[in-house]
């Protein structure tokens, strides 16, 4: 078991920071380049959502929690949570539909949640209005954490 | 300005955009702004997105492509992706973007 917590300001510069930290967190495993890119992409999507939709690009705090749990001799379970205390999502099911976007005027593709679901094994979204949103994602990775 | 000249070039009626190493929401606004200015100023018909230097792209990249496609498709323009690596090619293909962008290998 290994865990990290990263708290950062909801500005777009930090999208790269969050995905690089997530990548560094699993770098000790024998992950493939594709698995690494999958995690980076999913984190980037969730953080971008928090900045654009959660905080309406007006700033706030984003928290990323990541944990690695040894599952068997040669597999690990990565969990990543991206949390904001922004406006929340009224209809989570609708928000997760491919191509759904409230940001058409800003040219969002509406594919953020679809990307998260495509690149992670499991994505769960918990949200309440004016309280915030938590995106919980899991991915099973081969290899073990050599630091343990 | 010199950097911009290298990143945005007009060849015949094609606007060629050299995409950055990492295409995300942070980079999207700048690309959108420069591209749209050139589309207006120079009567560009088609757009070529050059992914030669790009190693990372999330769904913000799709938004850039969709937005530019909307601007030029009503005048019969086309959108192309060149020099995309395997992962970016797969992103464009599996997300259904190939209905509006032609991936040239």
Number of domains of chain A: 1
List the strand order in the largest sheet of chain A.
1-2-3-5-4
Q: Report the biggest beta sheet of chain B as strand number plus sense, adding barrel if it closes.
A: 5 strands, mixed
The mean pLDDT of chain B is 92
User: How many separate helices of chain A?
Assistant: 4
Summary of the model, kept short:
The complex is a heterodimer of chains A (148) and B (105). Chain A has 148 residues and is α+β, with helices and mostly antiparallel strands.
Features:
heterodimer; A: 148 residues; alpha+beta; Heat Shock Protein 90; 4 helices; 32% helix; 32% strand; B: 105 residues; alpha/beta; five-stranded mixed sheet; two-stranded parallel sheet; 46% helix; globular
Task: Report on the architecture of this protein.
The complex is a heterodimer of chains A (148) and B (105). By secondary structure, chain A is α+β, with helices and mostly antiparallel strands. Chain A has helices spanning 13-25, 33-54, 92-95, 112-119; strands at residues 2-9, 61-72, 75-84, 122-128, 132-142. Chain A has one domain: 2-Layer Sandwich (Heat Shock Protein 90). Chain A has four helices and five strands, in the order E-H-H-E-E-H-H-E-E. In chain A, strand 4 (122-128) and strand 5 form a beta hairpin. In chain A, helix 1 (13-25) runs antiparallel to helix 2 (33-54). The radius of gyration of chain A is 15 Å and the shape is globular. The mean pLDDT of chain A is 93. Chain B is α/β, with parallel strands linked by helices. Chain B has one domain (2-104): 2-Layer Sandwich (Transcription Regulator spoIIAA), CATH 3.30.750. Helices cover 46% and strands 25% of the residues of chain B. Chain B has four helices and seven strands. Chain B has helices spanning 2-7, 25-42, 59-73, 86-94, and strands spanning 8-11, 14-18, 22-23, 46-50, 56-57, 79-82, 101-104. In chain B, strands 1-2-4-6-7 form a five-stranded mixed beta sheet. Chain B has a two-stranded parallel sheet with strand order 3-5. The model of chain B has no long low-confidence stretch (mean pLDDT 92).
